[in-house]
Design a protein that fits this description.
Elements: E1 2-6, E2 14-17, E3 19-20, E4 27-36, H1 39-46, E5 55-56, E6 60-68, E7 80-83, H2 93-96, H3 104-112, E8 123-125, E9 128-132, E10 142-146, E11 150-152, H4 159-180, E12 188-191, H5 195-207, E13 212-216, H6 219-228, E14 232-235, H7 241-248, E15 255-258, H8 263-266
Parallel strand pairs: 5-9, 12-13, 12-15, 13-14
Antiparallel strand pairs: 1-2, 1-5, 3-8, 4-6, 4-10, 6-7, 7-11, 8-9
Helix pairs in contact: 4-5, 5-6
Length: 267
């Protein structure tokens, strides 16, 4: 199968013909229909984040189950699934405490570059091991993943939407629902209207935040933010964000979500 391989940090991806081993117990093979491009993938390419190399990157994906290993019960061949870069075992102290994002399986796949259950890889190039990125590696025609790394997707949801649900959407919406929490009627500022920021807008609208202020340097993204629920937008390349926010809310906002990933915006 063809896949995009990162051989060394700071170099372009290489399209390689890889051998994909069949799924083992508790695993399944997925034919990829759509993959999202996340800034985290770029961080691995530049070396800002570390992963064993070589590696097939891509961690936002959706596809169709082609084959399942022994013991897999939640899905079967023909099911459409979204891929999850953060698995949960349901047994470790973090899962039992209601913090599945801290599940120990995430640490296994991050440090080994393998699949979460045993830390080994199913990818080979000319007999040499190629690693998985966050247990997903969906910049490829196919992927073998753990059953813990998938969730079934209703047929009505387009594959490109289902793909970004596995990272951008849960990150943005989760920032509101899981970190901000109860915010009905409270002011919320979102800096950055990319995939994560726009998802945070939807989360803020769902939670009843008011007003919802969104700042970005791209007017088209701000228009999308309005459609999704922003009550005020700030074109940061033209308007001063602080002055605009304080002009509308002299006391400032109760919450701010930074969805750009830059030290300057955090400050």
């Amino acid at each position: 199968m063809l896949a995009a391989v990162l051989h060394e940090t700071g170099t372009p991806l290489a399209l390689e013909d890889l051998e994909l081993e069949p799924p083992r117990a508790g695993e399944l093979q997925v034919r990829i229909e759509a993959a999202g491009v996340c800034h985290s993938d770029h961080h691995y390419m530049t070396g800002d984040l570390r992963i064993p190399l070589p590696v097939v990157i891509g961690h936002e994906g959706c596809g169709v189950v082609e084959e399942v290993g022994a013991g897999v019960e939640s899905v079967r061949p023909g099911d459409r699934v979204a891929l999850l870069w953060r698995p949960r075992c349901g047994r470790c102290r973090h899962c039992l405490a209601g913090q599945p994002v801290m599940c120990v399986l995430g640490r296994v796949q991050a440090t080994t570059g393998g699949l979460p259950d045993d830390g080994t890889t199913r990818l080979r190039l000319d007999g040499r091991e190629v690693h998985h990125l966050m247990g997903v590696s969906c910049f490829a025609e196919r992927a073998v993943v753990s059953e813990k790394s998938v969730i079934k997707v209703p047929e009505a949801i387009p594959s490109p939407i289902a793909a970004i649900t596995g990272c951008a959407v849960i990150t943005g919406v989760g920032a509101v629902l899981n970190v901000v929490g109860e915010c009905a009627g409270r002011a919320l500022l979102i800096i950055g209207a990319g995939g994560v920021g726009l998802s945070a807008v939807m989360g803020a609208r769902l939670a009843g935040a008011e007003p919802i202020i969104v700042a970005d340097v791209d007017a088209a993204k701000l228009e999308r933010a309005r459609i999704l629920g922003a009550t005020t937008v700030v074109l940061a390349g033209r308007d001063d964000t602080v002055e605009t926010v304080l002009g509308e809310l002299p006391g400032g906002v109760d919450w701010a979500i930074e969805a750009v990933g830059r030290a300057e915006t955090l400050q």
